[in-house]
Amino acid sequence: xxxxxxxxxxxxxxxxxxxxxxxxxxxxxxxxxxxxxxxxxxxxxxxxxxxxxxxxxxxxxxxxxxxxxxxxxxxxxxxxxxxxxxxxxxxxxxxxxxxxxxxxxxxxxxxxxxxxxxxxxxxxxxxxxxxxxxxxxxxxxxxxxxxxxxxxxxxxxxxxxxxxxxxxxxxxxxxxxxxxxxxxxxxxxxxxxxxxxxxxxxxxxxxxxxxxx
Length: 213
Fold this sequence. Notes:
Elements: E1 3-6, E2 9-12, H1 18-24, E3 32-34, E4 37-41, H2 46-66, E5 69-72, E6 78-81, E7 84-86, E8 90-94, E9 101-102, E10 105-107, E11 112-116, H3 122-126, H4 128-136, E12 140-144, E13 153-158, E14 161-164, E15 171-173, E16 181-183, H5 196-205
Parallel strand pairs: 6-10, 11-12
Antiparallel strand pairs: 1-2, 2-4, 3-4, 5-8, 6-7, 8-11, 9-10, 12-13, 13-14, 15-16
Helix pairs in contact: 2-5
């Protein structure tokens, strides 16, 4: 199996199918199948992992609190096409579509995908992966730059196409997770991240999913 190294990523040159990828992808590191080519990025930096830890806990605990569905982390393969298998940093599948989650990964589009950008993955995240999420019908995608808001983009699906999601008053209100509201200031604190329990309490004060029923 021929491998080519480009900067901070490794590409396995032979093209393969999603089924072959699920059989051959390494278990000890992140790998994705993009346009039939296996991509293995370098390990994430600490700034990436700190933001991942905060967001994963926040989304997971909110979803569990209201029994909204399932949340998975960065080593869960998402099979979107015969030549597209991604491992987003965080994904959410609504309860009514929980059957898409199998022993081998998520078969079909999650409702929400979160990608925390890095030098090794940003070209894919903004390019072919974003296009793949759109084609598959992912309802909402967050591309978050851990270094600040300038490189951060939020999208939601409207009429089969991604359109930018508005952040109003410094708050992003999710289209995929009922009444989930993310304050932008939480993503880039000067020091420690806001405690998850405080962020959840703020969201609960907004009414929770029952208020939108």
